[in-house]
Amino acid sequence: MFNFRKTAFVFAISLILGITSCGPNQSGTSVAVVTSTSSVSETSIITATPLPTQTQLPTETPFPTFTMTPAPTLPQGIENLIRVDFINSVEFHTKSQEFTNQEVPGLSHWNTIFTNQPDQSKAPVYGLGLTYLSELDRISSNIRQEFLIKAEHPNYAWFFEDVPEETVHDVYKSEAYVETDEGSSNPFTPGFDASIITDVQSFAEAGTQTVIITITPQQKLTFVGITVHLNGGPHGNVANAEISNLSPGEYKGKLGEQISVSPDKKNLFISIPSLETSQPYSYSFSVNVVPNTPNINYRPYVSIGWLPQSDPSSNNQAFGTLTGNSLEHHIDHMGTWTWSANGNYSWEWHDGTGYYVDFDN
Fold it and tell me: Rounded to a whole number, what is the largest CA-CA distance in the chain?
């Protein structure tokens, strides 16, 4: 459950941090998504594909190495742009349908995302690799197993093939995702009230469920993300569910939201750029529910969160740029990430923390 939900967090975070941009609805149809006090509108999709396998990493032990074909030289004045994000997700889980703003114990999870950004070079990133030297007592068993070539705590390494520059609706497709579990209580106050209301939860046979998600900020919030998984969470497998009143695709909301429905209609992501204090924002949609066994209780898995580091006016931002074949980033009490590649690249990096309330189903 955790890994599935976490992957979708990365999609939502990518929206919020600006890794991706929203494109038009390719079908040309307009879809009403939300009924709301501060009405919101239509919907979009983000797809991330896993990176391939093979690479060169730093040569010092205990990490493995091997040789590769040299990367070709780019024309003078042309740069191959790379973006790397380091994200700490602090999460509080509740089984209630309603949450009132208060200090809660949070669990921290770290991840990093690599993006070969579209640019004039049109070139791949050659021989991408990632190492992690942990300062934690343990890391989650949910770390990405694909491309993992060393996992001997505290040393971890992943190898990827050449990473092409790919876009789908102006959404960067080339992302590598790795996550660790800090396993510590990190108290925080989310800054909002929220509720997940469903008109019916019990299903003896196939039926339709209306879901209303409402968030009411108790402080000024920017870049709020809502992630919905119809078959996520500990009880998501009790039914085959899909969104019934929204078409897959990408849309722009009336308040500037980026909204997306996945191709299988089982995931919904909403990114809201700015919310006013004490103003409720409500989003409603319908779900077709087909029970896998008779007489089930069902509701989707929902996560609501925000990234204060995404606010350009925030003093908590950490970011930078450099040129070369590797990027090393140390996080106190967590460890050191090192991304490396064969060739010369322009690296842009961002370090941010997101705070989430997860409504377990």
Answer: 67
Rounded CA gap, 41 and 293, in Å? 35
Which residues fall within 8 angstroms of residue 286, CB to CB, at 6 or more apart? 208, 209, 210, 211, 243, 244, 245
Rounded to whole angstroms, the Cα distance separating 31 from 251 reads 8
Instruction: Quote the pTM value.
Output: 0.70
CB 133 within 8 A of CB 335: yes
Closest-CA residue to 6 (of 126, 154, 131, 108) = 108
Between the CA of residue 217 and those of 60, 161, 178, what are the distances in Å? 49, 43, 31
**Coil/strand/helix, residue 354:** strand
CB 302 within 8 A of CB 356: no
pLDDT tens column, 282-341: 999 999 999 988 889 999 999 999 866 444 445 456 889 999 999 999 988 788 999 999
**Amino acid type, 124:** P
The residue among 193, 196, 187, 195 whose CA lies nearest residue 219 is 193
Contacts of 342 (CB under 8 A, 6+ apart): 55, 56, 68, 69, 70, 71, 126, 127, 325
Spacing of C-alpha 53 from chain mean position: 22
Residue 207 in tokens: 């039926």
Domains and CATH numbers, the chain: 2-26+47-188+310-359 (no CATH), 192-309 (2.60.40)
